[in-house]
Amino acid sequence: MLKRLILPAILALCLSTGCGNAAESPRLTPVVKVVKKWGPSVVNISTERLAIIQHNLFQGMYGTAFEEFFRQNPAAMIPIGTMKLKGIGSGVIVSEDGLIVTNAHVVHMANKIYVILADGKATEAEVFAVSPADDIAILKITPPEELHAIKFAQDVMIGETVVAIGNPFGLENSVSAGIISGTNRSFSAGQPGQMMTFNNLIQTDASINLGSSGGALFNLDGELVGINLAVVQGAQSIGFAIPASRIREILEEYKEIKSKQPVRIKISE
What we know:
Elements: H1 2-17, H2 30-38, E1 42-56, H3 67-72, E2 77-93, E3 99-103, H4 104-107, E4 112-116, E5 122-124, E6 126-131, E7 136-140, E8 151-152, E9 161-166, E10 174-189, E11 196-204, E12 216-219, E13 223-231, E14 239-243, H5 244-260
Parallel strand pairs: 8-13
Antiparallel strand pairs: 1-2, 1-4, 2-3, 3-7, 4-5, 6-7, 9-10, 9-12, 10-11, 11-14, 12-13, 13-14
């Protein structure tokens, strides 16, 4: 009698829990799960800009004592041609209707901006809003397919594992992992006399390299912790990200302004 009661109960349990299936592979770590689900929300960005090649009319004519003077005198420079310069970076899809967040320096002075989705489809983008003080730019594309927008993290815990996804050195959708090393950090960058300081940054030891700028920093819940910004040159595993809380604020400011007056910035051809 007892067996008659137990066997049906076990059968019902197996049907409801899938006990006949193989156990989940240990290879499916939390990091792998984040990459599989949210990797497509990170895009690669390719830019083009035209640089004017100039020649100094007086170069070498009056000796080195006057070289610097003539070099800084615009009247002494004549254009002799142009050069098309290409750049790379990363971005994060933040809305299904085609809004993408990246770093402002990724698209600075670009004549053309292309967003390459995870499946390789490329589409041209426009700059809709920029916050130079935060090094954040909002791009807009016409989605060629359904987009998978990220979710924002509500908080950050020092020591928690994070996953960085970006386009370092043109190596599309590369993944690195690390931890949150600190918060409320400051970082300065730029040329002497033109230095900019960014505050309230997240510090991480997840690898961030050239081209990773604008990429995503996820927690293990698959939520966006921050936008990758820069790495300290010459240091070991010290990188910075703009916190998701600031990204949300910029997006809300943008949406409020746009609801009152369009803020589209036309990129010059």
